[in-house]
Every structure is written in C-alpha cells, then in structure tokens.
Amino acid sequence: MAEVSLLFKNKVYLLAQIFFIADNREELLLNAHKYDFDILFFHQMSDFVTAVSHAEDNALFLIDLDVLYNMQADMLQQKRQTMFLSDLLQRLPTGREYIYLQTNRQGERFALQQRLVDSQCLAYAEKPISNANLVEKLFNIFARQQTGSSNTILCLDDQPPLDHAMLAAQDIQLVQHTDAATFHLRVKALQPDIVLISEAKYQQTEAVARILKKNIEFDNGREIFLIQETSQPHIARRALDSGFDQILNRSEPDILSRQLIQRIQKIRTAKDLISRDRATGLLNKVGLQKRAQDWIQKAQQQGKPLAYGVIDIDKFKTINDTWGHYFGDIVIKRLSLVLSAYIGENDLLSRFGGEEFVMVFWDCDAQTGKQRMDMMREAFGRVVFQVTPEETRQFSFSGGLATFPECKSENELFLRADEQLYQAKQNGRNQICG
C-alpha cells in the first residue's frame, strides 16, 4: 500500500486485485498527478476498510469488483458470487459513497447495477475503460464536489413557487423581482445563473427574454426558464421562439426547487471545468478575470480595498531544463498548496499561466497585502524538494502588488502588479515589490 502523499490535493483509495495494480499503477499515477490527485492502492479488504474509515471527507473510494473473485478463490470457493458482493457491501464503512468498476465477468449487468446504485454508490463504470478515461471521470467528480461560490436564481414573479430553505441549503440564493420593465437592470446587477419568469409576467411583457438576450453584456451561458401555469402549448411555443431556454411547469415548491438544484449542479460543474486549472484545481486566467471583476464591483459598492498580487517562480526555466518538466510540474503544485494555505474565504487565487500565480485579497490594503505575500514567499522558501536521491533544493518566487481603488479595473491592477513583479526580478528576485 502506498503512503499518503502530501504533494497532491485530493486522494483516490482504490481496492483492486494485485495484477490490476501491477499492470496499471504507473499509468494511473501519471494521469492522476496531471490532475492534482493521488491514488492509493489496496488489495486487502481489511486495509482498505481501515483507510476509508480514516480518510479525508473529500476523498474518493474506488472498488474494482474483480476483487470478488480473489475472495472467491481464497475463502469461499463453493458459494455463489452474489454472497461475495453482499459480504463486500456489508463490510464497507457506512457514511461513505463508493465508485465501482463493474467487471466483465459479471453476467447480469443490469441486476448488478441496480444492486450497486442502491448501496452507497456514488457512481459506477463498466470495464473495459482506459486508464486515461477513468482518471478524467474521477477528476470530473472532484470538480463536482468543489463548493465554489454560491449561485443565484433571479425570479420575475409576485410569489415564486420555490422552497427557499431547500435552495439555501445548497448555497443557492433566490432573489425576487416584480417589475418586468426594470428586470433587465436587475439581471445586469446580479449576474444570476438562472433567470425564472412566471407565465403571468411573460404574458404582460412578451419581449422580456429577447430584451435580456440581445443585451451585449448578457452571459450566453445563463439560462432563462418560463414557469408555466396553464400548460397551453401555444404559449410554450411562443416562449421558446422568443428566447426562453426551457419550460417548467408550476408544481409543488419542493419539486420545482429540486429541478433547479439539479440544473445549478450542472452549471457548477461546467463552470469549474471552464474556469479551473486542471493541474492545481485553482482558478485559471479566465476564471480569475471574471471573479476579480465581480470582486471589484462588490468592493466599490461596499467601500472596501483590494490587494492584487502577481507572483512568478524564480528561474523556472532553469528548473525545467535541469530536472525536467515533470519535476517542474511538481514545483508548481507544491507552490499552489503553499499559497492556498494563506488564502482566506473571501480571497481569490489563480494559476494565471505557466509558473505565474495571481491572488486577490479582500478588504486588504497595500501594507497588509505585502505582508501576506511575504509570508507566502517565506513559507515556499522552506519547502525542501528532492531533486535526486542524494540531493535536495529549495526554490523561491518574486512578486508584485497593486491595490484597488488606486487601480480601477482588473486589467489595470494586473498591469501595475506585473510592473512591480518585474521590479522585484530586477532587484535580485525572492522579494515582493509594491
């Protein structure tokens, strides 16, 4: 069994046959490390159960059902296969969900799938499945589990037929608006993930969806739903032709809320895949720029300062040229973990590209921002890297800082911080300027 690695952000615990581990270990690990998670391998049920019981909450637990045949050969050769599955399911720690790899040897696949999905099943995969495909699917599950920021549903209706408490429990904010003539302004201000419009409001102002979508600032990823009361086909046709994305029937508040929660979860997954760097799990350049613009707008409304930092690993090309790009990726991932430890709940952190990272500190002035970046720099300088079996090295980064409201836009903040980063490099590196 592999020891838990401190290098990678997430962990997968895999119970599989010895031959599966031997044949797939290196390729699985190579693919997993690209997505910033590690795989811990187990071939003994007792070791797996113990590890699962003490694992982190955000870990994934993967079981290759070929282990049932190990149990059959070693323990109970004369008993039916379903008894082995029952034994496995009973021994798994409760309070966890599991991902199952369904073996080719299983005969009645649908019956087995039904059994699995009713037994603490997070997901299942059918073999054969390539190592690369399996790892990508596991990464997608990690992405779904990331909490991220809260989501907003903006509803044009006098009495939204929704369960507020159910939505709030999923970090979804419901905002009500009643005036169709000013609705586009509210959409622009709140930037909601989903827009709901009741049939009554739609019939008062049938152009409302077209008005929203023709605005040059409208987010094409945002969805507009009609809540229909009468179920008249001609109204649904007109609404779809005028720009609505989907028709929802007005029903019990909890049912409608469940439909919207499922849609929000898909939106969260899509946003994470678009806006996050796969190697580190941090915001990428696109994700950071969008979120930073929102932070600037919120800071302006609340009269709060922002500190905007840009950092760059010193002599990173030399690191790659000397020890290889794979080692360079390890340095980047270790740096991302160091930086993350100093990021508050209301701060932003991004791998902006290559060895460059950007951070935004909420309600933070220049002096405090420089102090926080210096703490990060010193912490990273203490990290020891084993570059060869006999040799270790420590590395550094340089950084530049800019502040809002002195700089008014995200682009202006970046350009100013980047100038200060260049100054830090010119001054000898391993320092913060700003």
UniProtKB/TrEMBL annotation:
Stated name of the protein: diguanylate cyclase
Pfam families (UniProt xref): GGDEF (PF00990)
InterPro entries (alphabetical): Diguanylate_Cyclase, GGDEF_dom, Nucleotide_cyclase, Rev_trsase/Diguanyl_cyclase
E.C. designation(s): 2.7.7.65
Residue ranges constituting the GGDEF domain according to the UniProt record: 304-434
Family annotation (PANTHER family): DIGUANYLATE CYCLASE DGCC-RELATED, REGULATORY COMPONENTS OF SENSORY TRANSDUCTION SYSTEM
NCBIfam families tied to this protein: GGDEF
